[in-house]
């Protein structure tokens, strides 16, 4: 435990990644202010933290100014799954851009360090593979993913301009697909979709022919990367890729999940969404050399933990029958 608690603001703290981050910061003795408008976040994600005296939840939309006193800010607020960020695309861009301006204005006023949760989507549908941080991307600025991709790109611009112009202490990490317990069961992301479908023995929805690739990082590994980045020297501004460099096709992921769940699900093919990136895999040499970070969790083990989470969730909601032994 630290002797003097840092006051840390986590925006999007009731979301999937945010709730794990709050947990990690509390465990090391920080004072955590969790700000969320509950668009995609859930109170259930942070219910287990409410009894902790160092934890304070606050309902707030970061597109509005926020006046608080903190030492560090992790800016995670933004819907992350395509169906959620495309639901109200204008609000998505506002959250990334106006939200970044407000959080950077706050960081400037109170002289806090601020970390931006950027994304591999800044590389768009990449023509360089694997993607390193010098690659400038291939983003369609007017397509259905643009509200997210361009919003995040503009947020990076704002971070670097506040850094150059106002000497704000920034950190920018570009997160690649991350999965784990507390993903939203209905957010349409591939890992949660496939696991829920497999557990219900429903058809697995493979978009396109399933040959498109992603690289899947377990949430605990990613949170470790966040904290290392924030704790790094002020010269370490990034952007730095955080992700698991083991590339897996979506069809292969479906097979692994069917195998791990012992499911009777079959595969059903659906059209590939517009602008869906064909290949994605991080080059993490910078994270390795600068932060001494690399992911540790093997995909199958991480998926087993995630499956266990969804099993409990579905059983509590009565959507899948409890095993006979459990009912006895
Ligand atoms: P999530 O949807 O679970 O979490 C986002 C949180 O932000 C939610 O709790 C939501 O209610 C909150 N939020 C949204 N708009 C807000 C606003 N205007 N004001 C306040 N709160 C708001 O998604 P996640 O996977 O936890 O993603 C967290 C961050 O990481 C996002 O910024 C996302 O872009 C980034 N990211 C995630 C991944 C991933 O694979 N999970 C990959 C790349 C980047
Ligand atoms: N801001 C905030 N909290 C603060 C300080 C600023 O939310 O503690 C917001 C404020 O609404 C402002 C934005 O951050 O519009 C950008 O602040 P900055 O100081 O860069 O710009 P200015 O106030 O000059 O517009
Ligand atoms: N995908 C799929 N079936 C689903 C959900 C997603 O085949 O039910 C595919 C999707 O087309 C994409 C990949 O899985 O190629 C990852 O999708 P996700 O939405 O999880 O993340 P992102 O596209 O933002 O990386």
For the CA atoms, what is the radius of gyration?
A: 19 Å
Bound molecules: nicotinamide-adenine-dinucleotide, uridine-5'-diphosphate
Helix content: 25-40%
Please, what is the average pLDDT?
Answer: 94
DSSP strand tally? 13
Distance between the termini: 43 Å
Main pleated sheet: 7 strands, parallel
- Tally of helical segments: 11
In short:
By secondary structure, the protein is an alpha/beta fold. It has helices at 16-27, 43-46, 82-85, 89-110, 146-166, 190-199, 219-231, 250-261, 285-291, 299-316, 324-327; strands spanning 7-11, 31-36, 55-59, 72-75, 113-119, 170-175, 178-179, 204-207, 213-215, 217-218, 240-242, 247-249, 267-270.
Describe the structure.
The chain is α/β, with parallel strands linked by helices. Helices cover 39% and strands 16% of the residues. It contains eleven helices and 13 strands. It has helices at 16-27, 43-46, 82-85, 89-110, 146-166, 190-199, 219-231, 250-261, 285-291, 299-316, 324-327; strands spanning 7-11, 31-36, 55-59, 72-75, 113-119, 170-175, 178-179, 204-207, 213-215, 217-218, 240-242, 247-249, 267-270. The relative contact order is 0.13. The model is unreliable at 321-328 (pLDDT under 50). The structure holds nicotinamide-adenine-dinucleotide (NAD) and uridine-5'-diphosphate (2 copies).
């Amino acid at each position: 435990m630290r002797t003097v608690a840092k006051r840390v603001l986590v925006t999007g703290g009731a979301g999937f990644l945010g709730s794990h981050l709050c947990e990690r910061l509390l465990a090391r003795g920080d004072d955590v202010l969790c700000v969320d408008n509950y668009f995609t976040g859930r109170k259930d994600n942070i219910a287990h933290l409410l009894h902790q005296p160092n934890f304070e939840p606050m309902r707030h939309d970061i597109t509005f100014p926020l006046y608080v006193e903190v030492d560090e800010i992790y800016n995670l607020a933004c819907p992350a799954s395509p169906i959620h960020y495309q639901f109200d695309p204008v609000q998505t861009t506002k959250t990334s851009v106006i939200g970044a301006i407000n959080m950077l204005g706050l960081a400037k006023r109170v002289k806090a360090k601020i970390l931006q949760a950027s994304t591999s989507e800044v590389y768009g549908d990449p023509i360089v593979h694997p993607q390193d941080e010098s690659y400038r991307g291939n983003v369609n600025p007017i397509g259905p993913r643009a509200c997210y991709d361009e919003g995040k790109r503009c947020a990076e611009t704002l971070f670097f301009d506040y850094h150059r112009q106002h000497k704000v202490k920034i950190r920018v990490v570009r997160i690649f697909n991350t999965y784990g317990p507390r993903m939203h069961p209905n957010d349409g992301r591939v890992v949660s979709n496939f696991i829920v479908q497999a557990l219900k023995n429903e058809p697995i929805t493979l978009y396109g022919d399933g040959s498109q690739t992603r690289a899947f990082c377990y949430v605990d590994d990613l949170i470790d990367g966040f904290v290392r980045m924030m704790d790094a020297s002020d010269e370490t501004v990034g952007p730095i890729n955080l992700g698991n460099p083991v590339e897996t096709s979506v069809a292969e992921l479906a097979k692994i999940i069917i195998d791990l769940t012992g499911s009777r699900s079959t595969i059903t093919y659906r059209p590939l969404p517009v602008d869906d990136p064909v290949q994605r895999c991080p080059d993490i040499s910078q994270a390795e050399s600068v932060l001494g970070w690399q992911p540790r969790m093997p995909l199958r083990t991480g998926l087993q933990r995630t499956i266990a989470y969804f099993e409990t969730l579905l059983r509590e909601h009565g959507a899948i029958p409890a095993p006979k032994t459990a009912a006895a």
